[in-house]
Amino acid sequence: MAVIVLSPSLQSFPPAAAIRSSHLDSYLRPTPPDRSLLSSFRKSPVFRNADECLSSGADSGVCNPSLVHVAITLDVEYLRGSIAAVNSILQHSMCPESVFFHFIVSETNLESLVRSTFPELKFNVYYFAPETVRGLISSSVRQALEQPLNYARNYLADLLEPCVNRVIYLDSDLVVVDDIAKLWKTGLGSRIIGAPEYCHANFTKYFTGGFWSDERFSDTFRGRSPCYFNTGVMVIDLKKWRRAGYTKRIEKWMEIQRTERIYELGSLPPFLLVFAGHVAPIPHRWNQHGLGGDNVRGSCRDLHPGPVSLLHWSGSGKPWLRLDSKRPCPLDALWTPYDLYRHSH
Question: Which GO terms describe its molecular function (predicted)?
Answer without folding.
Answer: glycosyltransferase activity
